[in-house]
């Protein structure tokens, strides 16, 4: 009991000596916490038993609580410290806005968030799809993306496959109004106080995958060099120079933390030529490109926020453009058809069929094999529901067909510089649509056939037509059978009148699929032998029915003697010269689908030269296809008839007169 009384006396003595100071400090801390709950700054000073709290800018009332006997000088010194303008407080970034509220500062200022954080990603469409790919002879390709829901367009220019990834340009069109309802107060104020007409469309240029220039619709430019942005008016006058902080590197990239050993190795691999050459076929291509684009988007977002805080309106618009482009790249990375996926997709090769079972827009790059002759044949099947197909190269649309149904084939001769061709197939909106296409390459084979042709020793004289020399392979050279002249059941009638006065019409035919399905186009004369054997054995003719033949390589063959009436037009061979194109040039016969050939440039050129030669020797007036004379026939095929009007225009010949 005595011990307890001693402890009680000691405690009472301690409170008596220290209680006043302790109560004062406790009251100071309590009031500081209470008054600083909605304040910017609060601090407590125990030396003079004083607590200070600065209220928000809306109130601007300074509350000073004297917990104990503080003198007036101490109060004045504290008020001066609280009402002075601090050096670290940034200036107000927006014109025509009220001056920034200057908070009163105590001893420990709180860290403030950045003034502008636009983050326009959430205001942009997220449904962009690849609309087309345009390869250029310069080694670049243009990838166009369109938002189906808004019609807005984005266009990116990147490298062709087989090289290290490079982005050269990004262009944005039909931007329209930016929905600022989901933005923060400061970002919304930037949008609402800025004239955005010049932001309707803009373009970004890049060098070595780093931003180099922003060009607005009105010609305003922002050049990005060595850690700064120089904003220029449409007439080239400098408006403002913005220095970026050390958080952004001098090359425009965000300062990064030190790289790990693995990251350094990957970066070295990325920069080597071997890795660059195989980038498109690398399994890590998509991740590598996606990472690069993500870093680029982050850099542009930081730069955009810095420019958007400027007092100069043009600078703010350039900042908005950067923020917009940054958001577009971020959304694109998460889309179903991302830029990195399209960039890294392997190109289509010869005879590689692409099949779709539904409605879509399909874009591919077709790789053209090397060869002297760049002959490409496009074959496509649209079945019952109509679809559309297009080809692009070097800024031009090479071909467009559709919407249509059924099966079709077209041939194209590409420039020697063409390494890739863009293919776009637009499926019908009907979800039941089906289609396929395949690209065949005959250029290499035809080029090899030219070598065989050049080795021929022609016995006949060269023929000159329009100052161009052409050769006609004689019957002896293609080892033709001798005609059967003495069979009364076979017609072999010679003209009795001068040929110049009697021959007035050229009739074009095609050999068809059933005769040539097993032929080799490189074997000289093989196709003529097949046609002659069919005519003489199966149709009981005295000889091959045509006067000339032309194959896909462009070789011209002598057929039936020109002095003998042909056997190629029912009930009307008199005065008509028959020329057969040794190919299947029909796309469809009745309900049967057949494999067909194409009218190669060599075949077409030889035909036109032969026509000019015949015009120079005879009084030719008419040019037509077999079906134009015998209207119940499919010959010479739909592909031939599609070219007939052009041929008549070139040769200045008229439509033929029907026989029946």
Q: What fraction of residues sit in β-strands?
A: 15-25%
Tally of helical runs: 15
Q: Helicity level, as a percent range?
A: 25-40%
Mean pLDDT: 74
Could you say which overall geometry the principal axes of the C-alpha atoms support?
elongated
Q: Please compute the radius of gyration using only Cα atoms.
A: 41 Å
Number of domains: 4
Q: What are the low-pLDDT stretches, counting only 5+ consecutive residues below 50?
A: 34-114, 249-278, 451-468, 588-595
Secondary structure tally: strands? 30
Strand order of the largest sheet: 4-5-6-7-8-9-10-11-12
Biggest β-sheet, characterized? 9 strands, antiparallel
Q: Specify the structural class.
A: alpha+beta
Distance between the termini: 142 Å
Description:
By secondary structure, the protein is of the alpha+beta class. The chain folds into four domains: 2-83, no CATH class; 120-255 and 266-344, no CATH class; 354-441, Jelly Rolls (Sandwich), CATH 2.60.120; 458-651, Peptidoglycan recognition protein-like (Lysozyme-like, 3-Layer(aba) Sandwich). Helices cover 29% and strands 24% of the residues. The protein has a nine-stranded antiparallel sheet with strand order 4-5-6-7-8-9-10-11-12. The chain has a six-stranded mixed sheet with strand order 23-26-25-27-24-30. It is elongated, with a radius of gyration of 41 Å.
